[in-house]
Amino acid sequence: MRHFLDFEKPIAELEGKIEELRRMSEPEGLNIADEIARLTAVADKQLRTLYSKLTPWQKTQVARHPDRPKACDYISGLITEFTPLAGDRAFADDAAVLGGLGRFHGRSVVVIGTEKGSDTESRVRHNFGMARPEGYRKARRLMELAGRFNLPILTFVDTSGAFPGIDAEARGQAEAIARSIEACLEAPVPLVATIIGEGGSGGAIALATGDHVLMLEYAIYSVISPEGCASILWRDAAQAPVAAEALKLTAEDLVKLKLVDQVIPEPLGGAQRDKAATLKAVDEAVQAALAALSGVDPVTLRARRREKFLAMGREPAA
């Protein structure tokens, strides 16, 4: 059963009527097929109008949609012969970070993604996509493996942020994130990162410090969640919509600010309405990004990547 967001209630009512009609036997004097077609056209028009003017807070809700494709969907849909690799070789395996070897259009790659889970059981198992230090150390290990065997790195980011628990802090959360960012910057191979849902704080940038950063149209990417920002600035999480506006966390804003390189359009109504079309769009964007980076020598790759991130926020020379 489709999950509707609060602002989608008018669409929910229309689609509910369409489903009722589909289950009905055709009564005397009523052409159900014509009525379904009419209501479908009205629903599509309303959906198009609604999604053409979403606020940053509404885009945040879409980015968090429970039915939105997760990292495991992109890995299973885009990567063949995927072989997961576990553990950080120091403490434990972290299920919030998936990673391993596979083939992308026949080319061997290393794939890393933050996984939120799609139901209660899997969300708990993956800690809602919030990685502990061992998750970032696993990511670093895989990036170093990619460099050793000259394999491009693909990352899929969907996390509200790194896990803030006492156990994570005790095991060096900040250091683990910093080392993962360092591994991204030092990788001698192409690194293409895709923000597929939430890109939250250091937990996201630890996997997204790439040569080419892609972002889905209704994904978000920010130093802090709107609720967290509102709690700090106004001591009121209810101010989250105002914070979302101020944070400039949408794909449209971030391309203008040159913090991400490319926006991938989503199907009408968001990725959750047509997962196959979304995977196809991501597949094409990642393939094009990798093709543009192929043949670039490691020294140039590292230098360009470093300069790209150093230049963020810098005023252009007069």
List keywords for this structure.
318 residues; alpha/beta; 2-enoyl-CoA Hydratase, Chain A, domain 1; 2 domains; 14 helices; 8 strands; globular
Low-confidence stretches: none
Percent strand equals 15-25%
Q: What is the CATH homology-level superfamily of the largest domain?
A: 2-enoyl-CoA Hydratase, Chain A, domain 1
Order of helices and strands: HHHHEEEHHEHHEHEEHHHEHH
Total strand count, please?
8
The residue fraction in helices comes out at: 40-55%
User: What would you report as the Rg, rounded to the nearest angstrom?
Assistant: 21 Å
> What separation lies between the terminal Cα atoms?
56 Å
Highest-level CATH class of the largest domain:
Alpha Beta
Largest sheet: 8 strands, mixed
> Which CATH architecture of the largest domain is right?
Alpha-Beta Complex
Could you say how many structural domains there are in total? 2
Could you report the average pLDDT, rounded to the nearest whole number?
91
Structure in words:
The chain is an alpha/beta fold and 318 residues long. Strands 1, 2, 3, 4, 5, 6, 7 and 8 form an eight-stranded mixed β-sheet that branches. The protein has two domains: 6-53; 60-310, 2-enoyl-CoA Hydratase, Chain A, domain 1. The chain is globular and about 65 Å long. Helix 9 (201-208) links the parallel strand 5 and strand 6. It has helices spanning 9-23, 32-51, 56-63, 71-78, 120-125, 133-148, 166-170, 173-186, 201-208, 226-233, 240-247, 251-256, 275-293, 298-310, and strands spanning 80-84, 97-104, 107-114, 153-159, 191-200, 212-216, 220-222, 262-264.
